[in-house]
Design brief:
five-stranded mixed sheet; 883 residues; 10 strands; mainly alpha; globular
Amino acid sequence: MSEIPFRYPEAAERARERMEELTGLSLTTFFESAFADSAAPDLSLTNLERWLHATSSPGMHLEQILGLPSVGRLLVQLFGASQPIADTLIQNPELASIILNPQELRRRVDVETVKTEGRTLLAAASSYLHSLDRLRFLRQRWNLPIVMNDLSDNWTQESVWRALSDLADALIELTAEVTWQEFAASKDIKKQPGFMVVAFGKLGGRELNYSSDVDLVYVVEDGLDERRERECTRFFEAFGRGLSDRMGRGYLYRVDLRLRPYGGAGPILRSMRAFEAYYDLYAEPWEVQALLRSRPIVATEELRARWEAMREKHCFRSKLSEIGLEQMLAMKSRIEEGATEGDIKRGEGGIRDVEFLTQILQMLHGHEHAELQGRATCDALRALEAAGYLEHSVAASLIAGYEFLRKLEHRTQLVGDQQTHTIPSDAEAREGLARLMTFRNWAEASAMLERHRRTIQNLYRSTLSLELPSAGDRSYVLEKLGSLGPALLHWFDGLPESSAFYHVLVENEECLERVNRILSDGARLVSTFKSSVALTELLVSGEVLELEPAQDRIRRLPLSISPQHLAEIYLHTYTAVLARWVLVPDFHLGKELSKLQDALILHAGERLGIEFDILALGTYGASELNPGSDGDLLFLVSDSQHQPAAERQAQQLLTFFAQMHQFGAPVEFDLRLRPEGRKGLLVRTFDGLRAYDFDGMQMWERFALGHARLIRGGEESLKIVQHCAYGLPLTPERLQELLKMKRRVETERVKPQHIHRQIKLGSGGLNDIEWLIHLNEMRYPTASRAGETTDMDERIKSVAGARLLNALEAEMLLDARKFLLDLRARIYLLGVDEDLLPENPDKLDRLARSCGFEDGNSLLARHQLVVGPVRRMYTEGVDRLKS
């Protein structure tokens, strides 16, 4: 209790004693684990005790919490983060079933599901006001899992925004239904006219906040007479009150109608024809920009189609005028006048800068590229990158900054359900906010906030060319790098003494060329270089090409080094390896990355006193770790008596790696290839694996174990694994089982349109080579010397030596693998996901040049010359094995 920052420790002690009386159990361990990271421990404890006593069986619920430690910690965090959510739980004790059921917590918000639940609740309502109360309960019920998944980081920030937006969509539609039923009955109206509710802003983009207003406009079908239009106006007035009037459970949503034509001076309801005429004749440029994020929620098909056509016509014209852009910038400046430094929405480098920049780029280029016409900010940024209008490092930094700022905004709004975008000035509130953001203190959170805001500000100004032309080193370098200029400024403007760096780049062409190569061919590395002056200095000076073997640096580190410092060193070492390969690709990248990861595992094993064996599987086992790939691992222990201790150590090891990942180290490990997958023990005994081999192991598991390589431990564990992999003859029936699995991989994990562009899993890709060689090893283990090495080049030669391939085929496979492995790594470093050859011509050309080809067409031609023969060799080889 003494280490928990309770403001009133004596009161906390008395509360603990009262709660212990409910169960007869000691709560000391629970308090130490659950309250230490709470944003407000005293408030958490008060709300927890209030909630327990509001339930029908407080002792039983407390025992359930003790049995679910992760849920308990999350609940305590929630009780200290948001008083409104805590009040919801206290007022609705029946919602405890959601909290204490992990499956219920994981349920995703779905518009149709919420509407179905809502209509069931409404069917039992006794009046219109009771119906509105039921809808407010429905919002409370679904807000709870959203908040808990947000606080636990189980959902990404984008998932949280979309869940809140989908919930709002459903509740707005249900409110429209019950309001119309009430209104029509009171006015004796028999026929419902065609109308539409359109969302703008955050809701239009499916990016709603916890405490956002909902920006709406109301549209009615053409041709209504004056009486009918007046009736519709009265209906929408009642509808707005249904959403925003405060009742016992609060309100549903605050409604803002100011984005309608003529703003607050205009009528709240207009016909579709009137909207079309307004945007044709009178709309200001900023109104057209706002239209970009509009989205019909409740609508007839005809009105929805007309609205979408109007949006496309006005938002994505063939050309955006300079006057229009100037007017939008002027409106943005007027809105942001008076923004304080703590305003993370309107201040410099804030949320509005990212949204504004994204929307301008969409309006500039959306006419030619329909994929740029989306509404969500992050999706639009990814589309702009895919289309070649933003560098990967620029798009990635804008997305990361936007997600951070929106998350921070959410945390400030959770506290009191207030529509605020300003960092609290109170020191204690800031410390609590930092803990809600998983930082140790406000100093750490503030430093991260400043980095993101400075980055966004630099990218906003450089991308929109808002800086006046000036002479000097910076301008010279900017002009020299052309389209890579904004990415360069994003990198070097954020460094201390940036002017000195720019001067070096001007004075030394080789330095500038190295930077240019990283910007062009290693875009994923820029964010790491930007975060480290020392790493940037190594690149600029050229020392990055002369570093010692990466694994040696990790091996020399003391075991007492902090996880955060270790993560930083590992990230920088990893980045230096990748940068050296981009600049001078004269070494096997996969082997170097595998050695580096081996060194990290050995370091972690020694510092934690690990007493079980660790084996690498998959591409990691083959020492072909691709940048960005996770590492497949298998844990084995010799004696069943040591298994429980080994299981605990495995948990510690995985926690350590997760902690490093949280600190930024590119380390992710996957244990799903262990016996029984996610359901199985983390550590298997030798006898347990032998029994599983005898009784339950499937063929695809045996196939996976054929790439096993010992990282730490004794040779006996490797021999047992190899017996599992090769001890069972590959009969025709077992071969068919494996081939069926491969077909599933190709059809389920590769889209049909990507089958000839996917480097790893596509037709003629790396998997075809791996499967051809490994199936021959399983069929003829003695002749192919199966298990002697995991090096795929050596295995190809062994299979050829057994005359299962001829010399020409072996040579073709070796050349194909080198080409495809290099291509896969370069695709990743360029910033393209999913191992796909990019379809964007500019990105394809850039990839081609990084691979030494003249243009994209030359690269595609070479790729086809490689994958075609590989696929033929694979199919012919499989046919031979079948016979």
